[in-house]
Amino acid sequence: MIELFVHSFGLRFHYRHKPGFDIFAFIDRAAATGFSGINVSAYGPDFFELSGGDPAHAARVRKHLEARGLKIDIETNGTDAEHLGKLMELADRLGAGQIRTYTRRRGTPAGHSADRHEESGARPPPTLEERIAQAVSDLREVGPLAERAGINILLENHEELAGTEVAAILREVDHPHIRAVYDYGNSMVFLEEPLDALDIMARWVGTAHLKDHVMLAEGMDGIDRPNIMGVPVGQGNLPVVDITKRLVAAGLKRICFENVWAYRTPLRVKRGRGVLGQGAFAYRRPPFRPWQILPDPDAVARRDPGELVALEDRAFNESVGWLARNFAEAGIALAQPLRPV
Predict the structure, then answer these.
(1) What is the pTM of this model?
(2) CATH class of the structural domain 3-330
(3) Are 198 and 247 contacting, i.e. CB atoms less than 8 angstroms apart?
(4) What does the domain layout of the chain look like in residue ranges?
């Protein structure tokens, strides 16, 4: 039976544009929808999606979670011991059992898509070999700290490491408290097939990010290379049910639904055997319904922020409804029934 969590990123436009929407509103939405817990991005100094990071605020958040019967995991990036040590203290105050991270170069601020800030910075990003070596060194130091804290650090196949490289790091680190987040679609940026990434990461997976993607072709909307585009679950190319069944069969008990509608990112260097235009990498052509595919959410936000919030709300609820129907048909048992609100 799966405990299905929900990610704060999936309502990011609510946080930005809906007056009064904060961590407490997110917790209430998660509980009303039937999720077992939440994953919250925890990037200092403001901890925006957590709505604050001081000890008194964390205590209030924990109390609200307990009142709603929800669990929590938190998410950051960076692998150095000093940074993750501070996040372990925050996790302890919140009652979180797991911290998701991915690699970023020292000196790059923690935040959403920190690897893309590396690409646009004055210095070139680290080489793949440098990135892997730094992560191995850091996480060997972090492992005993995580064990003493009673928490797991989960390294994700984000947009700077394919599943193959995450597995190589974890094989070298070899610590029971350093595990993995398997993301259903992130490795597509390297043309790594989602099921290939799962096969190689499976032995370390402690949770997963469930999402759906399509491909947008070069030249559309002025993009200079193919883009991976987030869509409501069930509207894209990913074999969501098949992946989930494999995770369940491997013994996974916790998965996080991450609504990535209206998020897009460009293709990186090829490291996998995926073929553009086929399977998970099939192109989607316009015209698009905006609640399904919205390549430029910022344009909508400038015109009418309320419209963007409404579109995100529909995309979120369409995903929840699809998951409830299709998981039931596939015999994937959830700890609590889902119900769009």
Answers:
(1) 0.96
(2) alpha beta
(3) yes
(4) 3-330
